[in-house]
Model the fold of this input.
Amino acid sequence: MLVVFFVMPFGIMVAVSFFRRQQGGFYTPDFVFSNYERFLTPFFGGVLGFSLMLAGLVAVVCVVLGFPFTFLLSRLHRRTQIVWLVALLSVLSLSEVIIGFAWSTLFSRTAGITNLLVAAGLMAEPVALLPGFGAVLTGMVYQALPYTILVLYPALARLDPTLLEAARTLGASPARAFLNVVVPALRDTILATVIMVFVFALGSYLLPQILGRPQHWTLSVLITDQAIYQSNMPFAAAMAVFLVLVSLSLVGLTLLIGRREAAA
Amino acid sequence: MSGLVLESITKRFGSFVAVDDVAMSVPQGTFVCMLGPSGCGKTTLLRMIAGLEEPSAGRIVIDGEDVTGVPTHKRDFGMVFQSLALFPHLDVAGNIAYPLRIRGRSRTEQRARVDELLTLVQLPGLGDRQAANLSGGQRQRVAIARALALAPRLFLLDEPLSALDAKLREAMQVELRQLQQKLGITTIVVTHDQREAMTMADLVVVMGEGRIRQTAPPIEVYRNPADAFVADFIGSTNLLAVEADSAGRAIVAGAPVPDLAMPAGVTRAVMSIRPEDVHLTGPADATIRGRVTFVRDLGGTIETYVDMAGTAITAVATPRERPAVTVGDDVGIVLPAENCVVLAS
Done:
């Protein structure tokens, strides 16, 4: 199973990344490094850096928002929890396209949320909130947040509620008890969730195009562009391989740091 | 007054009344055991004293100060939870120092206090261990040390020893009592183990169905239970139906109990007599007779089950006191009047 559905496609992609591109056609088998050489330029370096930064930011924002939310959720009535979880699952079932266009409407000048603020007297006139970095970030956080919550939920639901009560009997206010008991007790879960959301966000290629300007395009966007519109399969494959390697090594590095901290 | 006073505390969960109009006053330095079957409201009562639950009605007063509306972290007490609730991300010293740390005490002060407490609970030098690597008894001691770190005026424990094996539990009971006497701290322990209560408490509060059934020193509760519920819950007992004859004498299983009179105006009641107070004699030496149905020889004590004309009774004796009887023997049953407690119905 793993070999057929994971190792083989990935192997083919690695192989293709070394092939020679046929201008105006497809590609011919070869073994050249030109595809990799091509993005050792400031432009692709910048795009890669931006992609990693964006995915990291999405992951951090998602966990910062999602962790307290999930904590509160896990303290609610069982039935209320189920309603929330079903609602979150249904958001997860929305495709990137729908999320993208929904937010582009919400952020638009003609029909967007700023019209509500104008109606409420908080703003002078409606403005367009997109395209822009904030719009890209909002869309991607919206997409990844249900995923974050569902990953965090089991650990928080299992957390012994008396830990928090114990902290309170020892003189910690509820907020303080949350920060220095619940958060550190679940440090490993939080780290694992950040990594998972990071990888999830790295693969997003539609939202940056719909909600952002070209400078907000991620490596995934460029890969799509090369593979589908430029028909440059070898270059797209090379970028994809590179992206996988970079994100894997980042994940590995994070785990390594986590392990060293736990050992110390 | 100094100490803890509960004034008609009631707690409702929806339509269920968990704690029903409980009043109690615990003098400074007293060791109280709240005893009762599960679901009797004892843990809820303890959690209200801790501020983890809010009473539906009533007042909680500590040393003359009304703390009913005071949030948990501003009340001055230490608490040991049933699960112990040691913080998994901190080592032993970190756990014990937690209340000191969040109050911003200096590191030197924290270290000195942790060492002092570790010595107090007999775990010197274990500060840098992880809680997960300790034995059950050691974790228990860490939880106690952490709860006492700020030298609180009130010490609450919720079924603190229930996770330990029987032998360790007995040892910890003695230790906990000695610790409490050394510190002179007002202590409330919730337990369903009556042996625990007998070992440790100055005062036993027996609870049933959300109400206090009896508050008295342990031996008083044992010797003079207020009602059948208390008698049955504290230790084992024989609950016998008793009737008054025309002369006011108490009749059990059709025969009069020598020297035992029924309270005036009561014709039928239930009487409690402890198995160790039931003496077996030859059939000719007693007014009540019965037949032995089973003998349980436990070595240290021997339990003899006797059927008295349809009413079962158990007698417990040491091997030395026990008359040689076997199943099927006819015996006389002596119920000393001073050990019979006719219970309020």
Remarks:
- Chain B has eight helices and 20 strands.
- Helices of chain B lie at 42-50, 92-101, 107-120, 136-147, 166-183, 194-200, 218-223, 228-233.
- The two ends of chain B are 34 Å apart (CA to CA).
- Residues 78 and 147 of chain B are 4 Å apart (CA to CA).
